[in-house]
Write a structure and sequence with these properties.
Layout (H helix, E strand, L loop, with lengths): L12 E7 L2 E7 L8 E7 L2 E13 L8 E7 L20 H14 L9 E11 L6 H15 L9 E8 L2 E4 L3 H6 L2 E7 L4 E11 L1 H29 L13 H19 L4 H19 L10 H18 L15 E5 L7 E7 L2 E10 L5 E2 L8 E2 L1 E6 L16 H14 L12 E10 L4 H15 L9 E9 L5 E5 L3 H6 L2 E7 L4 E8 L6 H26 L13 E6 L5 H5 L4 H10 L2 E4 L4 E6 L2 H15 L7 E10 L2 E7 L2 E6 L20 E9 L5 E4 H20 L1
Length: 717
């Protein structure tokens, strides 16, 4: 019986446009047809497969929206084979985690608040064109897939990356422009509002940052129109779903009966006191309503959230904060450096009940982190890691592996400080900072930025300028009026609508990260947030951080490795290494120093003390020493023959003074002028084709005499 074959018919739809002058297309219906929606996104030669799926029923027993976003990097996309033992992709790299977080923060606020079905967004990067960002392509693809799917969502949105090159704002910069750019900004927005901002910058002025955000938002409108056109053609009707259950009647009774008690419980700057009071209030609720509402405990968390939000929002709109501060008032601050012995640099930064202990470690360049990703960067010299233990918020929970939030906050602090880290030529060390959050009541990421700046200065890292970080919150009323306030604490972050984090120096911004819980921000809100965070970070620098340590320490810690940098002719590298590495191994063994050699002839020497570094450098100088014609050298006579004397210019490097060049007068015997062991000045007259060095004692004496005569004449005048 013969095999029956039919040809697959694809009901695919291709939509094309341009983004920043480069072709962009979305192809629906050809691959991943079992997902709720999928598309092959192409931007230039960058290809990203986006698939969005939702469970048909809500997940039981949860009071949150279960959204997962995975940004999957496949190394075949850039023609690489993974470097792991298994030769396959492992856990997501940090850039992939950050891309997932950016997409998550952009789309999450636009889902219905009572939606409890699992939603999974998967972006698989399949090919990379360095001029066309896979992150930006994925974001637009996710927006389009959610918009055309049957999943309830309030988009679409668009996305653009922004650079700042030669004083000009550039949208979706290409690879060359990215290398020259002082700004790496990502903006996601609907047609009316900005929903996400993520930025790294080289001390960009606040007004330039604002202009870049506005320009990106204006250009995103075309992307939103493009997606809306697709939805009009192939968009599916949104699914009906089981709305999350909530007992509104019970909530209204609790609010009416205990509003004054709830306000009293909330009105404190101490997180522990507030929680103790609120727990007592819950006991009172049980006394009042448990008999009539026996299942009330299943709603307690949501009742607490809604009740506290109601109070916090009303207070903030009236200009009253939970802890009694003014809206532009920062919680009490403290800073201290050198808090840990033996480590290379340490600092404790305190803002209210938020405390971050940052520790800096210096090492040789061989300790740089090797990266195996689809991105261009292959190693990282400056690393920042952030840890958030459960005890920092008073929870009794054991330690777990590092989560995405910890990775994201560490990356934010790293991004904020990276522009001020000295170049490897200025400071040839690998640098790692770890921020341990020992107490958390809001804005720990910004506390880690301040603490890390202090720890780096304590370690003697010559940073270009100190960096401070601060966050801005937001409450909006139904009529569109809003209130912003500086330095949000935990309860304001939890119940507010924005966490706008800005880090920078006095000269400008180095990083921004924006989280929101509403449908987006107007330009007016963004402008006000930039203004008040700018004033705040300068005040923190002037009044707290710089009085603690006004400048980096002039020397690295005694416990840090000592470093020397030298440069040799690349052709001499082989001589320094030696056959089978024998020479460099001998230098390392005799000096006690560690030596790293770059292909361009740069040599990094490190050791526990400077003497070991100097010893290794001297040995290398000897190996690569090449005398220069016309130069004077002070050397030792090491051998005498009938026709001349051999003078050691450096260990293992001899030259010969012919008998005719020993003196102005005729010399019969070499010993009449010099003997073995004598130290004499000689001048290099020439080096022959075989590398033999010819010297002259007579010419050296003439030149020295001429210099002495000139000096004497100057002194006489």
């Amino acid at each position: 019986m013969s095999t029956i074959i039919t040809h697959k018919q694809f009901n695919n739809h291709i939509y094309q446009t341009e983004i920043a002058g480069r072709p962009f297309s979305l192809e629906f219906g050809k691959v991943a047809e079992l997902a709720n929606a999928s598309a092959m996104v192409r931007y230039g030669d960058t290809s990203v497969l986006v698939a969005v799926t939702a469970s048909p029923r809500p997940r039981d027993g949860i009071d949150f929206f279960p959204l997962s976003v995975d940004f999957e990097e496949k190394l075949y996309a850039v023609g690489r084979i993974p470097g792991s033992f298994l030769r396959r992709e492992g856990q997501p790299s940090l850039p992939a985690v950050l891309a997932s977080r950016v997409i998550d923060r952009s789309i999450r606020p636009l889902f219905p608040g009572d939606f409890r079905n699992d939603v999974v967004v998967t972006c698989t990067v399949m090919s990379v064109d360095r001029d066309c960002s896979p992150e930006a392509a994925a974001m637009v693809g996710v927006s389009a897939c959610l918009a055309v799917s049957n999943i309830p969502w309030g988009g679409p949105i668009g996305c653009l990356e922004v650079g700042y090159v030669d004083g000009e704002i550039v949208l979706n910069p290409n690879q060359a422009q990215k290398h020259a750019s002082k700004l790496d900004l990502t903006v996601a927005a609907s047609k009316e509002k900005v929903v996400m901002i993520e930025a790294g910058a080289d001390q960009i002025p606040d007004d330039v940052m604002y202009q870049a955000i506005v320009k990106a938002h204006e250009a995103i409108a075309a992307q939103v129109d493009f997606i809306n056109g697709i939805v009009a053609e192939i968009g599916r009707e949104k699914m009906t779903y089981d709305h999350a259950d909530f007992d509104q009647e019970l909530f209204d009774k609790i609010v009416a009966a205990t509003m004054d008690e709830a306000k009293a419980a909330m009105d404190t700057d101490d997180k522990n006191v507030r929680e103790e009071r609120w727990n007592a209030l819950i006991d009172h609720w049980h006394e009042l309503f448990l008999e009539d509402y026996p299942d009330m405990d299943q709603y307690l968390e949501e009742i607490t959230y809604k009740f506290q939000k109601k109070i916090v929002k009303a207070w903030l709109l009236q200009g009253h904060r939970v802890d009694g501060r003014q809206k532009n008032e920062i919680r009490p601050l403290a800073a201290e450096v050198g808090v840990l012995p033996r480590v290379h640099g340490s600092a404790l930064f305190t803002r209210g009940q938020t405390q971050v202990l940052s520790v800096a470690t210096l090492n040789t360049l061989s300790a740089c982190q090797k990266l195996d990703t689809i991105w261009e960067e292959e190693e990282k010299r400056y690393m920042h890691h952030y840890n958030f233990p459960a005890y920092s918020v008073g929870e009794a929970r054991g330690a777990r592996s590092v989560n995405r939030r910890e990775k994201g906050h560490g990356a934010l602090a790293e991004r904020a400080l990276d522009p001020v880290i000295p170049s490897v030529e200025e400071f040839p060390y690998a640098i790692r900072v770890v921020s341990e959050v020992v107490s958390s009541n809001g804005s720990t990421s910004q506390g880690s930025i301040c603490g890390s700046t202090l720890a780096l200065m304590d370690a003697g890292v010559p940073i270009k300028a100190p960096v401070a970080g601060i966050s801005c919150g937001l409450i909006q009323d139904d009529d569109g009026s809003f209130t912003t306030f500086i330095d949000i604490q935990g309860v304001e972050d939890f119940h507010g609508e924005m966490d706008f984090k800005v880090a920078g120096t006095k000269a400008g911004i180095t990083a921004i990260q924006m989280d929101i819980k509403n449908d987006g921000l107007s330009h007016a809100i963004i402008k006000e947030a930039l203004d008040i965070t700018g004033d705040a970070r300068k005040a923190i620098l002037d009044e707290i951080m710089l009085p603690c340590i006004p400048a980096p320490r002039p020397q690295v810690s005694e416990y840090a490795p000592k470093m020397l940098t030298m440069k040799i002719d690349p052709d001499k590298i082989r001589e320094v290494i030696g056959s089978g590495g024998k020479v460099i191994q001998k230098i390392t063994a005799e000096s006690g120093a560690k030596i790293d050699i770059e292909d361009d002839g740069t040599i990094y020497i490190s050791a526990e003390n400077a003497a070991c570094c100097d010893a290794a450098k001297k040995m290398i100088d000897t190996i690569v020493f090449v005398p220069e014609v016309g130069m004077l050298y002070y050397g030792k006579v090491v051998r005498i023959l009938n026709f001349g004397a051999f003078v050691e210019l450096a260990p293992g490097k001899d030259g010969m003074v012919h008998i005719s060049k020993l003196s102005e007068r005729r010399v019969n015997r070499v010993e009449d002028v010099v003997n073995i062991g004598d130290m004499v000045w000689v001048k290099v007259t020439d080096i022959d084709e075989k590398g033999r060095v010819n010297l002259s004692l007579r010419d050296a004496q003439r030149e020295i005499a001429a210099m002495e005569a000139r000096d004497a004449k100057k002194n006489h005048k």
